[in-house]
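Milestone 3.1: sequence recovery, worked example.
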């Protein structure tokens, strides 16, 4: 792809000129396509002077943190720090059921953890004589730029993402946004050229608050585990059925109710999993995906047999609007 290759050359040159021969950059990565592509570009441009930070918030998908670490650090060679803050996040979520409070707690805790990692990395970098961190990487795309200019003013770009504005002020960091002229499909094309594994390039979007907004009601480690296991089976079967790329986003939610069932000659009274799958161009509107019955049957059997504590599976047939893609 000629256009993308020349984009890469130009962008690497632009990054090197901006950052200079000694400057350092820090950025959060999530395992999503945007932050990964942005990180790989930085790695190509300035090597280990780019520091990536992955915050484990305790509500990522099953084995996701380890997988992301393996791909980014081992396979793509990115200078990565993993901050395991799962106990901190889950501790603060204890007893909280309100969706907006969950989001606020996770958002604020993320900023706190990312900032504290940034200070540590900055300190180590200075001690090694490599100079301070001067730049903050953001995987902002063109649609985000447009949205924040038209609705909130240009300086709000960062707020709509991770709101690490404190870092910009306290550490006097400058923003670097290599994807700010690209649309999602261009970022994916770029990811392929940069030899990022398909699995990552085509991964469904995943919200910052993660499984916490897919466990309705209180988010306990036990509930997170049930939602994770069910979600893992669901996505696994969607992939086996060859439907993953056709679907824009799919996940399993754990509902805050119990229902009666029967197992052998025993009455059960256990939890309910709801399956969501949507097709969408821009995630502003979405249609529920017509999942084949055979696939649904396999998924339902597997979840009920393999996930302890679940005795019923439902399929969500609501479109957006008036429903949203997430349950909370
Ligand atoms: P809704 O539920 O509003 O979701 O229809 C639209 C898209 O946005 C994602 N989403 C989020 N992404 N932080 C994120 O990074 C969030 O707090 C958040 N909430 C929703 C959702 O997964 C879907 O793709």
């Amino acid at each position: 792809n000629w256009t993308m290759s020349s984009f890469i050359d130009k962008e690497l040159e632009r990054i090197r000129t901006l950052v200079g021969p000694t400057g350092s950059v820090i950025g959060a990565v999530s395992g999503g396509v945007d932050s990964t592509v942005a990180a790989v570009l930085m790695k190509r441009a300035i090597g280990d002077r780019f520091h990536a930070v992955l915050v484990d918030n305790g509500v990522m998908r099953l084995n996701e943190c380890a997988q992301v670490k393996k791909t980014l650090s081992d396979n793509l060679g990115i200078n990565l720090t993993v901050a395991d803050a799962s106990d901190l996040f889950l501790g603060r979520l204890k007893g909280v059921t309100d969706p907006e409070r969950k989001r606020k707690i996770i958002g604020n805790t993320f900023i706190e953890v990312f900032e504290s990692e940034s200070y540590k990395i900055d300190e180590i970098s200075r001690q090694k004589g490599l100079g301070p961190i001067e730049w903050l990487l953001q995987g902002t795309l063109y649609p985000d730029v447009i949205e924040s200019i038209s609705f909130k003013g240009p300086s709000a770009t960062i707020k709509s993402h991770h709101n690490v504005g404190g870092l910009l002020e306290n550490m006097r960091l400058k923003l670097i946004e290599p994807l700010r002229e690209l649309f999602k499909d261009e970022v994916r094309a770029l990811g392929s050229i940069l030899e990022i594994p398909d699995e990552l390039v085509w991964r469904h979007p995943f919200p910052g608050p993660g499984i916490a907004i897919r466990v309705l009601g209180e988010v306990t480690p036990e509930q997170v585990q049930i939602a994770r296991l069910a979600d893992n089976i669901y996505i696994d079967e969607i992939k086996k059925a060859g439907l993953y790329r056709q679907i824009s986003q799919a996940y399993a939610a754990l509902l805050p109710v119990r229902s009666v069932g029967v197992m052998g000659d025993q009455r059960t009274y256990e939890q309910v999993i709801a399956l969501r799958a949507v097709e969408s161009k821009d995630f502003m509107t979405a249609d529920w995906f017509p999942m084949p019955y055979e696939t649904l049957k396999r998924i339902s059997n597997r979840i009920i047999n393999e996930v302890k504590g679940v005795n019923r599976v439902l399929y969500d047939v609501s479109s957006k609007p008036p429903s949203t893609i997430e349950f909370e």
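Confidence is low (pLDDT under 50) at residues 152-161. Residues 103, 205, 207-209, 249, 283, 320, 324-326 surround xanthosine-5'-monophosphate (CB under 6 Å).
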